[in-house]
Amino acid sequence: MEAEEQSEWGPKAWAYLSSVRKQSPLIQCITNFVSMDLTANTLLSAGASPAMLHSSNEIPDFTPQVHALYINVGTLSDNWLPAMKLAAELASKSNKPWVLDPVAAGASSFRLRACLDLISLKPTVIRGNASEIMALANASVGSTKGVDSSHESIDAVEAAKCLANSSGAVVAVSGAVDFVTDGKRVVGARNGVPMMQKITATGCAVTALIAAFVAVDQSQALEATASALAVFGVAGEMGMEIAKGPASLRMHLIDSLHGLDQSAVISRVKITTS
Ligand SMILES: Nc1ncnc2c1ncn2[C@@H]1O[C@H](COP(=O)(O)OP(=O)(O)O)[C@@H](O)[C@H]1O
Ligand SMILES: Cc1ncsc1CCOP(=O)(O)O
Ligand SMILES: [Mg+2]
Fold first, then answer.
1. For the chain, what is the domain count?
2. Which residue's CA is the nearest one to ligand 1's atom 8?
3. Would the pLDDT of 185 be above 80?
4. What domain range includes position 224?
Protein backbone atom coordinates (compact mmCIF):
# COMPACT_ATOMS: atom_id res chain seq x y z
CA MET A 1 0.00 0.00 0.00
CA GLU A 2 2.73 2.43 1.02
CA ALA A 3 4.80 1.65 -2.09
CA GLU A 4 1.71 2.18 -4.23
CA GLU A 5 1.02 5.56 -2.62
CA GLN A 6 4.67 6.56 -3.00
CA SER A 7 4.63 5.71 -6.70
CA GLU A 8 1.80 8.19 -7.30
CA TRP A 9 3.70 11.15 -5.85
CA GLY A 10 6.53 11.31 -8.41
CA PRO A 11 4.18 11.87 -11.38
CA LYS A 12 2.13 14.30 -9.28
CA ALA A 13 5.21 16.35 -8.36
CA TRP A 14 6.31 16.34 -12.00
CA ALA A 15 2.83 17.54 -13.09
CA TYR A 16 3.07 20.49 -10.66
CA LEU A 17 6.56 21.46 -11.83
CA SER A 18 5.48 21.15 -15.49
CA SER A 19 2.45 23.38 -14.85
CA VAL A 20 4.63 26.01 -13.18
CA ARG A 21 6.99 25.92 -16.18
CA LYS A 22 4.08 26.17 -18.62
CA GLN A 23 1.99 28.80 -16.81
CA SER A 24 4.85 30.82 -15.27
CA PRO A 25 2.67 32.15 -12.44
CA LEU A 26 3.33 35.67 -11.15
CA ILE A 27 4.28 35.46 -7.48
CA GLN A 28 4.28 38.62 -5.36
CA CYS A 29 6.89 38.26 -2.63
CA ILE A 30 6.91 40.45 0.46
CA THR A 31 9.98 38.91 1.96
CA ASN A 32 13.02 39.66 4.09
CA PHE A 33 16.16 41.41 2.86
CA VAL A 34 18.34 38.31 3.41
CA SER A 35 16.20 36.07 1.22
CA MET A 36 15.20 38.30 -1.70
CA ASP A 37 17.91 37.12 -4.09
CA LEU A 38 17.67 33.37 -3.41
CA THR A 39 13.88 33.52 -3.39
CA ALA A 40 13.64 35.31 -6.74
CA ASN A 41 16.22 33.00 -8.31
CA THR A 42 14.50 29.88 -6.96
CA LEU A 43 11.20 30.99 -8.48
CA LEU A 44 12.82 31.87 -11.81
CA SER A 45 14.69 28.57 -12.02
CA ALA A 46 11.42 26.71 -11.40
CA GLY A 47 9.73 28.64 -14.21
CA ALA A 48 7.69 31.11 -12.12
CA SER A 49 7.82 34.89 -12.27
CA PRO A 50 8.79 36.65 -9.01
CA ALA A 51 8.03 40.28 -8.13
CA MET A 52 9.29 41.79 -4.86
CA LEU A 53 6.72 44.59 -4.35
CA HIS A 54 5.89 45.70 -0.84
CA SER A 55 4.70 49.31 -0.83
CA SER A 56 1.18 49.91 0.53
CA ASN A 57 0.86 52.49 -2.26
CA GLU A 58 1.04 49.90 -5.02
CA ILE A 59 -0.45 46.81 -3.37
CA PRO A 60 -4.07 47.79 -4.22
CA ASP A 61 -3.20 47.88 -7.95
CA PHE A 62 -0.80 44.98 -8.00
CA THR A 63 -1.91 42.24 -5.60
CA PRO A 64 -5.27 41.47 -7.29
CA GLN A 65 -3.31 40.76 -10.53
CA VAL A 66 -0.90 38.16 -9.13
CA HIS A 67 -1.35 34.38 -9.23
CA ALA A 68 -0.19 33.95 -5.62
CA LEU A 69 1.17 36.07 -2.78
CA TYR A 70 4.07 35.11 -0.51
CA ILE A 71 4.54 36.86 2.85
CA ASN A 72 7.68 36.31 4.96
CA VAL A 73 8.26 38.14 8.26
CA GLY A 74 12.04 37.50 8.43
CA THR A 75 13.14 41.13 8.74
CA LEU A 76 9.86 42.47 10.06
CA SER A 77 9.58 46.17 10.88
CA ASP A 78 6.69 48.39 11.99
CA ASN A 79 6.09 49.96 8.59
CA TRP A 80 6.05 46.68 6.63
CA LEU A 81 3.38 44.99 8.72
CA PRO A 82 0.42 47.10 7.47
CA ALA A 83 1.52 46.38 3.87
CA MET A 84 1.60 42.66 4.60
CA LYS A 85 -1.89 42.76 6.11
CA LEU A 86 -3.26 44.81 3.22
CA ALA A 87 -1.80 42.42 0.65
CA ALA A 88 -3.11 39.36 2.52
CA GLU A 89 -6.61 40.88 2.71
CA LEU A 90 -6.60 41.72 -0.99
CA ALA A 91 -5.34 38.29 -1.97
CA SER A 92 -8.09 36.62 0.05
CA LYS A 93 -10.71 38.99 -1.39
CA SER A 94 -9.53 38.25 -4.95
CA ASN A 95 -9.53 34.52 -4.23
CA LYS A 96 -5.78 34.28 -4.79
CA PRO A 97 -3.78 31.81 -2.69
CA TRP A 98 -1.31 33.25 -0.23
CA VAL A 99 1.46 31.57 1.73
CA LEU A 100 3.06 32.62 5.03
CA ASP A 101 6.62 31.99 6.22
CA PRO A 102 6.61 32.82 9.97
CA VAL A 103 10.38 33.28 10.35
CA ALA A 104 11.43 33.28 14.03
CA ALA A 105 7.77 33.46 15.12
CA GLY A 106 8.68 32.80 18.77
CA ALA A 107 11.55 35.29 18.96
CA SER A 108 9.52 38.25 20.25
CA SER A 109 5.97 39.10 21.21
CA PHE A 110 5.79 41.67 18.37
CA ARG A 111 6.66 39.00 15.80
CA LEU A 112 4.38 36.39 17.33
CA ARG A 113 1.43 38.82 17.40
CA ALA A 114 2.14 39.84 13.80
CA CYS A 115 2.16 36.20 12.66
CA LEU A 116 -1.05 35.38 14.53
CA ASP A 117 -2.75 38.47 13.03
CA LEU A 118 -1.63 37.42 9.56
CA ILE A 119 -2.92 33.89 10.18
CA SER A 120 -6.33 35.35 11.01
CA LEU A 121 -6.32 36.63 7.39
CA LYS A 122 -6.53 33.04 6.18
CA PRO A 123 -3.31 31.96 4.48
CA THR A 124 -3.61 28.96 2.16
CA VAL A 125 -0.36 27.47 3.48
CA ILE A 126 1.94 28.17 6.43
CA ARG A 127 5.51 26.73 6.16
CA GLY A 128 7.95 27.04 9.02
CA ASN A 129 10.61 25.09 10.83
CA ALA A 130 9.68 23.06 13.91
CA SER A 131 10.32 25.80 16.50
CA GLU A 132 8.28 28.32 14.50
CA ILE A 133 5.28 26.01 14.10
CA MET A 134 5.38 25.11 17.82
CA ALA A 135 5.51 28.80 18.81
CA LEU A 136 2.47 29.53 16.63
CA ALA A 137 0.45 26.53 17.81
CA ASN A 138 1.15 27.38 21.46
CA ALA A 139 0.97 31.16 20.87
CA SER A 140 4.10 31.45 23.00
CA VAL A 141 7.41 33.29 22.84
CA GLY A 142 10.67 31.48 23.67
CA SER A 143 12.25 28.08 23.00
CA THR A 144 13.63 29.37 19.72
CA LYS A 145 17.10 30.03 18.35
CA GLY A 146 16.33 33.08 16.24
CA VAL A 147 15.58 32.03 12.68
CA ASP A 148 16.94 28.49 13.15
CA SER A 149 15.04 25.61 14.71
CA SER A 150 15.95 24.11 18.05
CA HIS A 151 13.56 21.19 17.47
CA GLU A 152 13.28 18.31 14.99
CA SER A 153 10.41 18.43 12.49
CA ILE A 154 8.93 15.19 13.91
CA ASP A 155 8.48 16.95 17.30
CA ALA A 156 6.20 19.55 15.71
CA VAL A 157 3.76 17.27 13.88
CA GLU A 158 1.05 17.53 16.55
CA ALA A 159 1.53 21.30 16.75
CA ALA A 160 1.21 21.46 12.95
CA LYS A 161 -2.08 19.53 13.06
CA CYS A 162 -3.46 21.86 15.77
CA LEU A 163 -2.42 24.93 13.80
CA ALA A 164 -3.94 23.53 10.61
CA ASN A 165 -7.22 22.86 12.41
CA SER A 166 -7.37 26.24 14.14
CA SER A 167 -6.35 28.27 11.07
CA GLY A 168 -7.83 26.33 8.16
CA ALA A 169 -4.43 26.45 6.43
CA VAL A 170 -2.30 23.59 5.21
CA VAL A 171 0.73 23.58 7.53
CA ALA A 172 4.22 22.37 6.57
CA VAL A 173 7.09 21.78 9.02
CA SER A 174 10.47 21.53 7.32
CA GLY A 175 13.52 19.62 8.51
CA ALA A 176 15.16 16.26 7.87
CA VAL A 177 11.64 15.15 6.91
CA ASP A 178 9.21 17.83 5.71
CA PHE A 179 5.77 17.09 7.18
CA VAL A 180 2.64 18.54 5.58
CA THR A 181 -0.83 18.40 7.12
CA ASP A 182 -4.33 19.73 6.64
CA GLY A 183 -5.17 18.76 10.22
CA LYS A 184 -6.27 15.24 9.30
CA ARG A 185 -3.88 13.82 6.73
CA VAL A 186 -0.12 13.98 7.32
CA VAL A 187 2.42 13.30 4.58
CA GLY A 188 6.21 13.30 4.85
CA ALA A 189 8.54 14.50 2.08
CA ARG A 190 11.90 12.83 2.59
CA ASN A 191 14.14 14.60 0.10
CA GLY A 192 16.92 17.12 0.65
CA VAL A 193 20.36 17.13 2.27
CA PRO A 194 21.45 18.48 5.69
CA MET A 195 23.79 21.01 4.01
CA MET A 196 20.69 22.95 2.90
CA GLN A 197 20.48 24.25 6.48
CA LYS A 198 23.89 25.86 6.03
CA ILE A 199 22.65 28.18 3.29
CA THR A 200 20.69 31.14 4.56
CA ALA A 201 17.16 31.51 3.20
CA THR A 202 16.63 28.00 1.83
CA GLY A 203 13.53 27.85 4.04
CA CYS A 204 12.33 31.19 2.66
CA ALA A 205 13.03 30.01 -0.90
CA VAL A 206 11.12 26.75 -0.55
CA THR A 207 8.13 28.62 0.90
CA ALA A 208 8.13 30.78 -2.24
CA LEU A 209 8.25 27.61 -4.35
CA ILE A 210 5.20 26.35 -2.44
CA ALA A 211 3.41 29.59 -3.43
CA ALA A 212 4.24 28.88 -7.09
CA PHE A 213 2.94 25.29 -6.87
CA VAL A 214 -0.25 26.40 -5.08
CA ALA A 215 -0.70 29.13 -7.71
CA VAL A 216 -1.21 26.51 -10.43
CA ASP A 217 -3.63 24.39 -8.36
CA GLN A 218 -5.30 26.07 -5.44
CA SER A 219 -7.74 23.20 -4.95
CA GLN A 220 -5.15 20.73 -3.61
CA ALA A 221 -2.90 22.76 -1.36
CA LEU A 222 -1.57 19.76 0.59
CA GLU A 223 -0.48 17.95 -2.59
CA ALA A 224 1.04 21.13 -4.07
CA THR A 225 2.93 21.88 -0.85
CA ALA A 226 4.37 18.37 -0.44
CA SER A 227 5.37 18.34 -4.12
CA ALA A 228 7.17 21.70 -3.87
CA LEU A 229 9.10 20.57 -0.78
CA ALA A 230 10.09 17.28 -2.44
CA VAL A 231 11.13 18.94 -5.72
CA PHE A 232 13.27 21.48 -3.86
CA GLY A 233 14.81 18.61 -1.89
CA VAL A 234 15.58 16.68 -5.09
CA ALA A 235 17.31 19.79 -6.49
CA GLY A 236 19.35 19.93 -3.26
CA GLU A 237 20.31 16.25 -3.53
CA MET A 238 21.41 16.62 -7.14
CA GLY A 239 23.22 19.87 -6.39
CA MET A 240 25.07 18.19 -3.50
CA GLU A 241 26.49 15.58 -5.89
CA ILE A 242 28.79 18.28 -7.31
CA ALA A 243 28.88 20.93 -4.56
CA LYS A 244 31.96 21.47 -2.39
CA GLY A 245 30.16 23.32 0.41
CA PRO A 246 27.24 25.67 1.12
CA ALA A 247 28.21 28.39 -1.36
CA SER A 248 28.53 26.04 -4.33
CA LEU A 249 25.45 24.09 -3.20
CA ARG A 250 23.45 27.32 -3.43
CA MET A 251 24.51 27.66 -7.06
CA HIS A 252 24.12 23.97 -7.98
CA LEU A 253 20.73 23.73 -6.27
CA ILE A 254 19.39 26.51 -8.52
CA ASP A 255 20.98 24.93 -11.60
CA SER A 256 19.50 21.53 -10.68
CA LEU A 257 16.04 22.97 -10.10
CA HIS A 258 16.20 24.60 -13.51
CA GLY A 259 17.36 21.40 -15.22
CA LEU A 260 15.10 18.85 -13.47
CA ASP A 261 13.59 16.38 -15.89
CA GLN A 262 10.73 13.93 -15.61
CA SER A 263 12.85 10.85 -14.89
CA ALA A 264 14.81 12.55 -12.09
CA VAL A 265 11.64 13.81 -10.42
CA ILE A 266 9.78 10.52 -10.74
CA SER A 267 12.67 8.37 -9.55
CA ARG A 268 13.81 10.64 -6.70
CA VAL A 269 10.68 12.15 -5.11
CA LYS A 270 10.07 10.43 -1.78
CA ILE A 271 6.72 11.30 -0.24
CA THR A 272 4.91 8.92 2.11
CA THR A 273 1.84 8.97 4.26
CA SER A 274 3.13 8.98 7.81
N1 LIG B 1 18.48 17.49 7.91
C2 LIG B 1 17.97 17.78 6.71
N3 LIG B 1 17.99 16.86 5.71
C4 LIG B 1 17.50 17.15 4.51
N5 LIG B 1 16.94 18.35 4.17
C6 LIG B 1 16.89 19.31 5.11
C7 LIG B 1 17.40 19.08 6.42
N8 LIG B 1 17.18 20.19 7.16
C9 LIG B 1 16.58 21.08 6.34
N10 LIG B 1 16.39 20.55 5.11
C11 LIG B 1 15.77 21.22 3.96
O12 LIG B 1 16.23 22.55 3.93
C13 LIG B 1 15.20 23.45 3.54
C14 LIG B 1 15.04 24.52 4.63
O15 LIG B 1 14.46 23.92 5.75
P16 LIG B 1 14.73 24.43 7.23
O17 LIG B 1 16.19 24.55 7.47
O18 LIG B 1 13.95 23.54 8.14
O19 LIG B 1 14.00 25.84 7.18
P20 LIG B 1 14.41 27.22 7.85
O21 LIG B 1 15.58 27.67 7.02
O22 LIG B 1 13.22 28.07 7.67
O23 LIG B 1 14.76 26.93 9.27
C24 LIG B 1 13.95 22.60 3.33
O25 LIG B 1 13.84 22.32 1.95
C26 LIG B 1 14.26 21.31 4.11
O27 LIG B 1 13.65 20.18 3.55
C1 LIG C 1 19.18 35.14 8.86
C2 LIG C 1 17.88 35.84 8.80
N3 LIG C 1 17.58 36.85 9.66
C4 LIG C 1 16.38 37.36 9.47
S5 LIG C 1 15.57 36.64 8.18
C6 LIG C 1 16.86 35.58 7.89
C7 LIG C 1 16.82 34.54 6.83
C8 LIG C 1 16.19 33.30 7.34
O9 LIG C 1 16.09 32.37 6.30
P10 LIG C 1 15.67 30.86 6.56
O11 LIG C 1 14.52 30.87 7.51
O12 LIG C 1 15.25 30.38 5.22
O13 LIG C 1 16.87 30.16 7.10
MG1 LIG D 1 12.91 30.00 7.97
1. 1
2. 175
3. yes
4. 2-273
